[in-house]
Amino acid sequence: MKRIFEFSKIFLLLTVIGLISGGCLMNRVVRYPGGVDVPVKDLAGELINARAIFVGEFHEEWAHHRVQLRVIKALNEAGVDLAIGLEMFRADSQEPLDRWVRGDISEKDFRKEYHKNWNVSWYQYKGIFNYAKKNSIPLIGLNVPRSVSHKVFIGEVESLAPEERKMIGDITCNVDEKYEELIRDAIKEHVDTEAGYKSFCEVQMVWDNFMASQVVAYLDANPGKTMVVLSGSAHSWKRGIPRKVGELSGIRTLVVLPEAGEGFERWNITVDDTDYLWLDP
After folding, report:
1. What sign does the dihedral 218-101-149-257 (CA atoms) show?
2. 206 within 8 A of 157, measured Cβ to Cβ
3. 253: β partners
4. Residue 60: beta bridge partners?
5. Which of 18, 27, 78, 257 is the most buried (most CB within 10 A)?
């Protein structure tokens, strides 16, 4: 009898784990405006007409990367011809991404290339990279070369080459009150001067502008493709890269943000921030 009881407890535990891992406890998405519930199974159908779909993240939050992978899978299974745009790789590091998708580079060597570009654990993104490889989905590096962002941060914009200036566009710190508040909150432990804020804000604009230009250039060159863009929520929200994409092109964008602290909770999100909020990921 005791053995049966212990078995029942184990079975119940495994069932709960299975429900969680299967996503049954993380299936609430709301659409803005209005905060209307959208079943996860229907989300792909709502996203399918956009050509640039931004799915935000807090880089160290494993659950956010599960949300990203679920969006990618749903769109791929719906027959959308996908590419995946990555903040995690610089635009000048495209070769290893192409080799990975083709199967021409080992995981060990690809991980080395990844860590040259990004300092977050490989395992946060492993599922996404493996799914892209298995399904031959192009991975596209979007991030600005380090040399460019460094020159901007130390105030040497005039040293940028003409083609670099063209790609980053207007780097004036022209943001609304909510974006400014987000930036100030992000840097308050490191920068406490107006000059420091201005420099960081300009670098943020460089990131937004450059990644937007990369998204537009890829989609213009590949008119049959839809790009799922994976980047930090402070870039993915409508005030970031999507706004710049809209300024550069007529490409339709949609934004999915996972709910998180630091400005991305359901009580302070509006349609000016996102189209969909994935609750309690």
Report:
1. positive
2. no
3. 52
4. none
5. 257
